[in-house]
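In keeping with the milestone schedule agreed at the kick-off meeting, the structural modelling team has produced records for the first pair of proteins. Each record is given below as a sequence line and a structure-token line. The laboratory manager (R.T.) confirmed that both were archived under the project's standard naming scheme.
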Amino acid sequence: MDTVQLSPRILSQVFGTEFTRGSVSAGAAQDGLKPSKAPKISPPDNSHMVKSKENPPNIDNLVEQMLQKLKQVSEAGQEYVVESVEGRLGPKIVKYDVAAYIGSFIISNDRLGVSSQCNFGSVRANTCVFKGKWQYELQLGSKGVMQLGWSTVTTKFSQEKGVGDTIDSYAYDGNRLRKWNQSTAPYGETWQNGDIIGCCIDLDQGHIEFYRNGKSLGIAFSNILRGSGIAYFPAASLAFNENIVANFGATPMQYAVPGYSPMQLQRSIENAKTDLLLQWLDKVLRLFPNDIFVPDIGTGGNGVISSDDYNTLMVVCNRIFEFLGPNMHSAFVVERAFLPFFAKTLGLPEKIGQKQDISNVVVHTQRAYLLLDVMWTFLEEPEMKSYLERLCVILLSYFRSNSLSIKYPFQHYSLHCLIALCGHRRTRRHFLHHLLFDKTNRLMHFLHIRPVDEEVLKELIPEGWYTEKEPENSDAGRAYNNAIQLMSHHIALLENLQIQFLKTLMTNSDGTEKRPSSRSVFLRKMRLFIRDTIRPGSVLQQSVNKAMCTFFRFLKTIAVLYSEELEENSELRLPEIPPAMFYDTTVNYYDIERVGGLSSYLYKSNHVEISQALHIDDYILNGANNQQPRTAGDNPLGVDTPVPGFRTILHVSGQNPMNSVSVPLIRVSLPDNRQGGTLVAAQLGTTQAGHRPPATAHNQTPVIPISVPALARETAETGTETQTPSEGLSSTNLGMLAGTGTGRRLLGRSVSATSSGEELERPLHTAGAALIAGLMGFGGFEHRQHVYPTNPATSLLGRDSGVMDPSTSLRELLDDSIIVFCCGVLKHVEKVVTLQKLIAEYTKAQKTAKENLNSTNFSAAEKNEIQTSIEIFSRKLDEQSRHLAWVKAAVFTPERQQLGFNLLKTILKSLKTASSHGKLFAFVPELYISALVNLTWLLLTQMNPVIPCTNLPEVEDALADVAEFVATHFADTRIVIAETKDTMTQALSMFICNRTMLTALERMPSESQAIMVRAILRPYENRAWAQSNWMLVRMWQGNGFGFQYANSTQSRRSYRAKPVQDEFGISPNLAPTPSPILQSHVTTALMSNQKMAVTYIHSVLNQLNWAFSEFVGLLQEIQNAASRPERVFIESRQLKICCTCFELTQALLRVVEMIFNIASPVLNDFTRDSAQSLLGRLCMLLSQILNRIGSNSGSFAQVIDLDIAGLENVTHYPILSAVAGILLAAVRNELDMNSSADIPVTKALLNEPSFQVKSLDFLFGRNQSPTAEGTLPFSLRDYVPEDISEEDMGMLERVIAHVKDWNQRLQSDADSINDEEVCTICYAYPKTCTFKPCNHRSCRTCIVHHLMNRGECFFCKAVIQQVFTDDGEKIHDIIQDSDTPSETTLAQEEDIL
């Protein structure tokens, strides 16, 4: 056998001087270059090594010499030496026991990570100890209620009792700062996410001790149970959604406690051998010229390596990895030896300290790439994958650990290693395919930045600061801001590494003709993760815990790549999202809701519009059959997206030679050749005769015939003739495919591709199915399938293989970011806003306590308690101010604000463009509407206290555009999803409540304002009307009677609890935001269209009647329940409904008040249709409210005197002040009138049978029955001048005096009525109206009220066709016209809106 000479120089440099020269067989060299793929279980076979008489044996037998070296390694002094296993029972590999847990858990594949899915579940390990000192560690994935420690085999767990709740178990709970052993006592420190909790048990001394991040918390338990039959298992009890990861010794202890052994034993001999092998490997790597795995082969020198030297390196590498390979399955060896070795190749320290600064370390990746090349070459694939899996888990554990330094050493260390790993092409693709997008999405964990430990915050900010404490320019204020800047600096360094990591994963230059780029893989895996986990309604849907960091990292990465690859800028610009992306199948939205309904229905009903928008001319009826390549201006996705030209998209032709039945064939045209194209079209199919297609000329597109038997059968059934190859597709056939049942049925069938009786290749089969399904818009094929002949819509996607189009890829990632924002970011933002509210509440409480301390109304003992409260408030404020400093440094930053603002503008532009596309607007995903609204609110109110939104350029114009879009689309008929409608309506109501957004609404074009107002004034029947009513209330609040102040009157009453913000009515916590501009549009809409005004006001009165009736009914139920002798609990749901009905009643009254002030003729001008009837009905409702509320003996007064929790907002003032405002607005203009003809409102009120003049006295506290003991009689005078101005109060008194005066005048006329002339319905007024055709009579008031709801006579039940007064006036006529518009007219008006 020929031998290949080994280089003595290489051998001596690697192994020492004893390896000086030698040779191995050619088989050995070949084996070194291409190692065997057989499993390496036993030592390598050395039979092929040939000894030579000329060479010493130690040179020929390389492997034997290596084995001798390894045997000489002493085990003395090595770490983790285990001299005895005495005191331990159980398997060698320690895991959680899946047969010994109570509750529901998600357990990881290695059975070391558990996540609770029940209220309180318990789990224990499969190994116990009864003697000696033992330790295990737990990394916290959450910081909630958990009890961690030890239990015995006799411990009985349940959903109520966990670790530490029994006499034979012991636990520590860092959430409640307690230790548990049947009873509980204070112990330990507050734990945080990422903490490493060490659990140590000393069975020799009989005590248990816990550690937090290496710091002892003290001995928790002494004299624990010991003796015969007692052994302790590691155990944990977790509340819902709490999770931990255990380390029983499978990897080195993060904080090993001297004298304690890990639960899982390790062989030190393997560690020593691994160290020696890695020393050899390090020497080998240094011998590769320029750290290149395949260098230039030559005679040596100047970066060129000789052939013998290179072959020697290959052989040595192979032999080293044959010994190292089996250890790749050991997580302990990987963390203890391989990870430090890999970090060393990067220039990082082999071991990292908790407070070590490596943020400025310069990383060299070339040698790391060499190492990975060598490993992928000489390791078996399972060994390499096992190594990378364990390495990823270890790095994630490091990254998630709680940082004890603002310099984040472990996080920098992990990211540097990750970036180097993913910088290697093959390793990067393995990470993308198998490691980063698991069910927990490790990628998101690597993109998250956890707040530093509480102790670190205290070191950075020894004394908390807030505005109310000291001025910002004070020493404390400056120190506080300096600490924020320091944190921002270190966080920015870590964020830059995360962006670099994402950019590495998004590499777009590694694609080939047969392999997609890493960017394509990344986007596909991210989309699948969204489909399976993030998307609402997905099977595995779970909360996205790291959504905020992921969202902003994605945005920053998109902005950086956009600047580098498309348009250089420094403004963090984002790519535009064309509306065509919502329906051209470029991005698979799976089952995400569209604003227009189900996507399947939308594709069926809008296929023609889609083909027109995408310029698929062959699909359009009577369109040209041959299309030339389009120009950039024809591209629906923009100039920067390449769109291949398709000549003939679909063609039915030919005769099937297989039988005598005519079978239509689909003629599919391939896209024109593109740069870097991946298809060779000429070799894709055969003709009907079984021959290959003829060679095509340059730039000619070949035709691929595909036989579709299903289409032939449908054609035969419908009688459609087949066409010759030269004919184009007729309108009839196209209609069959596009809109008939035939075409739709074909979409659900497979397309059989046959030629001469033989089936074509599967890819061509898929192409045919994709062509029909995609062309019709119902493509069910998965996202980014292999590119075969397909329709132009999906071709806009680009190629699956090769380099992706940068613009298209960034748009898809941006779309992913929007989904992540909607599904997870808002929850985290709410936590931050809650922090700001807590600081405000603590500040207010501290201020009140200090005022009480200086008061003379408290005793010395009480002042001591107040002083204690002040100290507690101060500590809480210091703690919360530190957390707010973290928010300012890491969460709400100027860069994030700018990114959010840029995204807002991008989404708004896409939505406005989509709206201009007519019916295709229905394809917009509902998430885009939610994102628009929530981003606006994020920038305007949630970020604004920390970062003023006024810092953003052009923010006012952008907010005005958002306001206009929401105002003009919240009633858009193209939006059919109820959730989207609610989102838009709530958004508009929030905008009207906010002064900044209200100003933006007022800046809209007058036409848009009119459209919005008309949509708000739609009748309240058959729609969700409470929010629309609230909008009108907010437009009016600040102008009405007793409705001009922000403070709630209830909050100033000592016997009332803190007011609760209502849901549908008037919020007591919002400042008034009256809008004269929008009020003028309301006036115009009501005055210019009496029919619309009548319909709207009629619906308002209907809802007012319903709301008040429900409220009174619930009050009576509550009163009856409270009056029972036995104890009765009133349901909170009943109280909430009662309160809601009360709020709705007062809100509806305020709307009526506004109408009477700004558009009174629609109610008091009797020349207008139905004005008199509406006014009469309003007077009836006001009378009922006054009678029910204006009494101290009714159910209303009795219930509010009970002071029931949940009814704090139910008081006299809100509703009676609204009624008084209506009376004031309605009667104000009649005060100086002397003729009864000039006081229509006064007469209508006095003519109402249920009206009682004495009820008006209740408003001023006059003529009231005795009140409950300890309460004062109600009077509006008590609210002057804080809530009611003196002028308004004086005017109200004049109005009531005016009503009383005319009541006396009109009463004398009523007394003279003859009994025969009195109305037999009300017995209050004379008969003045005659019904036709039955000629029965009643008073005008009764018949007008009756006709509002029914059209039959009181007496004979005949249909009333006409009603005439005694003066000859016709007040009702159904023969000519109705007083209210027809349903058809209303429907037409809604369609116009």
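The second protein of the pair:
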Amino acid sequence: MEKTFFKETCCQCVASDTETQNEVLEKRGKLKKRRKKNENKRVIKSNLSFGNPNWKENPNRYYDSNKIKTTKYSILTFVPKNIYEQLHRFANIYFVVIALLNFVPVVNAFQPEVSLIPICVIMAMTAIKDAWEDFRRYKLDKEINHMCCYIYSRKDHAYVEKCWKDVRVGDFVQLQCNETIPADILLLYSSDQNGICHLETANLDGETNLKQRRVVMGFSSQNTSFEPEFFQNTIICEMPNNDLNKFKGYMEQPNHERIGFNIENLLLRGCTIRNTEVAIGIVIYAGHETKAMLNNNGPRYKRSKIERRMNVDIFLCVGLLFTMCLVGSIGHGIWSGSFPEHPPYDVPDENGNFLSPVLSGFYMFLTMIILLQVLIPISLYVSIELVKLGQVFLIHNDIDLYDEEADLPIQCRALNITEDLGQIQYIFSDKTGTLTENKMVFRRCTVDGHEFSHQENAKRLETHKELDLEDEDFAKLQQFTLPQMNIERPATYQRTMRPLRRSQSARAHFQGHTRSRSLGRRDSNQSQVAFSSTIEKDVTPDSRLLRRVREAALRTENLSPFIHMKTATSFTDFFLALAICNTVVVSTTTEPRQRVTVPPPIKPSGITLEKIHQIFQRLKLVSLSQSFSSSQSSSDLGASFSAKNTEEHLATSRGAGLQDKSSTDFGSASLDEVFQSVTHGTLPTDFCYEAESPDEAALVYAAQAYSFTLVSRTPEQVTVRLPQGTLLTFDILYTLGFDSVRKRMSVVVRHPLTKEIIVYTKGADSVIMDLLEDPGKADTNAERRMKRIKDKTQKHLDYYARDGLRTLCIAKKVLSEDDFQKWANFRQEAEAAIDNRDELLMETAQHLETKLTLLGATGIEDRLQDGVPDTIAALREAGIQIWVLTGDKQETAVNIAYSCKLLDQRDTLLLSAACSSPKRNKILCKCLSLLMKLFGFIPTSLPASEIPGPEFGLVIDGRTLDIILQGGLEERFLELARLCRSVLCCRSTPLQKSIVVKLVRRQLKVMTLSIGDGANDVSMIQAADVGIGISGQEGMQAVMASDFAISRFKHLKKLLLVHGHWCYARLAKMVIYFFYKNVCYVNLLFWYQFFCGFSGNTMIDYWQMIFFNLFFTSLPPLVFGVLDRDVSAETLLSLPELYKNGQNSEIYKLSTFIITMLDAFYQSLVCFFVPYLAYKDSDIDVFSFGNPINTVSLLTIILHQALEMKTWVRVCVVIYLTFSLIYNAVCVACNPPTDPYWIMEKQLSEPAFYLVCLITPAIALLPRFEQSTFLSLHFKFSEEKSYFSSN
């Protein structure tokens, strides 16, 4: 049946039993209130067991339905709830109190109704914005709730289509391929014969690779379809939580037998079913209790540094307001007490009593608060929100921050901290996927102590850097062939002969990962295969290793008994481990994401194993009679070869493959004949590999390059095609997945030829090396051989790390049947355990992964992103300190730091290795004392940007960080780190990353930025003032936790140096300007009180005052805050030093605020007293006196903005004059007994009015003009000086 995304008609299919259940739940009210607080587990039973009569006995009735509601308001609650939320702002409370105070007759200064207009306008604008945002959430919720799925109905005895909102805990849901999961569902049936269901979690965490989920133990073996009506088990699991990686519980059968389950059995809401025709499960969590919804907290609210500074200045303005009101009240008391008799305007009360001077002064204090309330900028908060929306819009549409290859623009997830981008002092960066591509490319390997440099592959990768190769370069690349091997190359090898271009790389389409996308069905063809770009898939084999591998592959089947078997087994086992020690899902290029479970048929090759055996018998006689004049064994030859290779320090040339030719080229023509014969029987198609990590995919593609091709995989078997064309199908007995604690993974298989039980393990070298078998327990020859392999492999690993490669060790272990059965029983008991299950599983894994035999190691390159060195250099010039926090080993991190110019070759590295805490303290003290002697004492209060640049770099590991953080050495560590050029924290855990960021931010009181791309970077991103996520190949968890999301590290340069500078400069100047214009305007009313007996009267009409603050002077700051550019983008990028203005808060700080307030007082004095002196001896009325003051103050404030800001709006003057002319013409009796009728028209005809309007702004702005001229000349001089010094 065809399903659609949104189907209103599906609601009509709801059965009557569900309607009855919903009615009962609605009558009972909210479910959460009835749930017992002391419950720590959830009991779930099938809803099919409870009909309408006994529905009250169903324990599922207390759980949430699947209907979601993310809106904050309803039609009835919008007005009161929105008003309540807006009153959380101090400024809104202040203006509401002032407006209500104006209704008190004894203290009112204006018409009470008119005083409500400003606060009502501001709150109405905010309410409209909130209502629009909530309406959008309502529409999205409606679409999601009315999506359709199939629920089993007891009445119809079949699955019927229902809306998502009608799904309840305990319902049985049937899911089909490419369908999105409506709730958290426990998997009970899968159409896959092995009980496997594949998920794509891109809608949840952004990862495009497939995840495997298994049917609960005991349900996977059924051959018939699942019948929900026969399900009588009781499910007990943990309470809802937001941990996406953990889930545990058990299922109790009617016979009281318990079956445990975990996260591998849970299908999460929002994920998509892939490669599985049908899956059935029971709903465990629904609606807001699902893990996806519990993680959907939306963008976090952060208070920017300017906002924190602004709140302090608002309290300063409140103090200034109270001071002015106190002066007014005292002045009114003194004025009233100066009359010997009560003046005629002092009217007594109904009893004939007059107010005392003290009480009269108190009432005047309240009146002055109402009169001077505009001192607090009422429209500042709304203006800031509008400006930040405009800034976010411009940042989002910057073409330079758009990644064409990934089709991703920048995402601004936090709308309220854009200005913080211009004040960053410390950057904490991840390495893998942030500084590097996270495209793992197989570069080198060492097998059995022999290193293979893969020079041909290195040249191919170098060619990849040149995107526009000429034809002659392509011809040169085609000449990289295997020496003296005229055999037919596999398809993978042929593809590597083409130069790789940018257009060939796979694009990871992460755009649009919103809730609307995560909750609908999509076509499977839209999904992209993760970690499958051309540069990752194509590997050019090393010529020497290729021949050895092919020889070893033939000897695996006992076809060549005359050569040392251990060496042959090492090479074969090494590549078998690469091919099968993983969780890769195999699909074909013609049908991506359609899992291959049965090996495809191979065309007849025309050669049998007997034929190959006869050929090798002939080769044996020829080689014995012609080649071996000495009795040197192949193992000795391999040792001499390896020694020579090591002496060359892993820099062997292409010609190195020809050395020891006597041991590798015997019978080459006949061997080539063999492979020419078997390669005719090729597999009919190419394969795509769905890996959970890029490292895993790189190793599988490397094995494929050496013709160890992973053909198919099921939970029980894995098939590998050997170089000679033979298919080997291994029985998978157990798979121990990778985890961050063990730092390794293992697979237990049964070899199809030898029937041995083999454990293949791969993992971090720091772990595997400690798990190897003790050489002392072996015989003398084996002991020497094992020690030689371990020492040489460790030496190769050190070289790999110095080259910046990621290293993995490969090992094996052969188990006896008895040992395996004992361990398998132990493992089964751990899997069936209910309590301490995770600990027991960990114990069983550690028990198995011991006494390993080292096979070799791999070196994988994580290529540096384009533009990283230039970006880091520019950020360093801007005064930003950059720390790298990574989980990689020390040597790899240091090499990457040199490559990206984080460290210079002339820097002195301070390396900190693990030791005891007292010794650590001494080492830190010695390092600090040394730096103090070199640079002198530097106080801790000195800003980081002003610290002299030493040539030291600090490299510290995770164990050292633990000792520092737990031993009270934080201050000593920070003092040392502040004096270093760069800091690298290696082998650090996600928790350590977060702690380091918090430590620096709180102790040094600096602005911090964290940037990462993976789930392990989430805590670090959330701990910083600004968090930036990179939408790379490790999913979208970092993006979802970030404030801004970019696709490349190089975009950080323009984001900070240009947009950060602009946003800070714009907003800082706008806030200062708002304070300035309000203080300047309010002081005009304050000066007038000295001439009206501090009576609280005004010389300006109140409508003019309202529109002056709301419209006449508010538009220019808004336009400036969005569009102004004090310095061009080109200048900011060429002179990163200009970024330090924001770091030091030079535009908006306490000193600039005080200077601006003093300037506002001066300008208000000029704007008041120049018109006063001009009209001193005239007989004009009060509004005729106030109109010139109001006009010149407007001109002064607008011209002040023209001096300070590059973008300003002249139309404000026109709007003011137009409004004044119309208002004064129609206002005949607006404010009796005095009205502003025809005042503006009359004064526009007087020359004195124009003279006042010209002289007053010039006098008022003269100091500001001189200051602006001086700063402009100083800036140009500094710019030219920096330009010449840089060139």
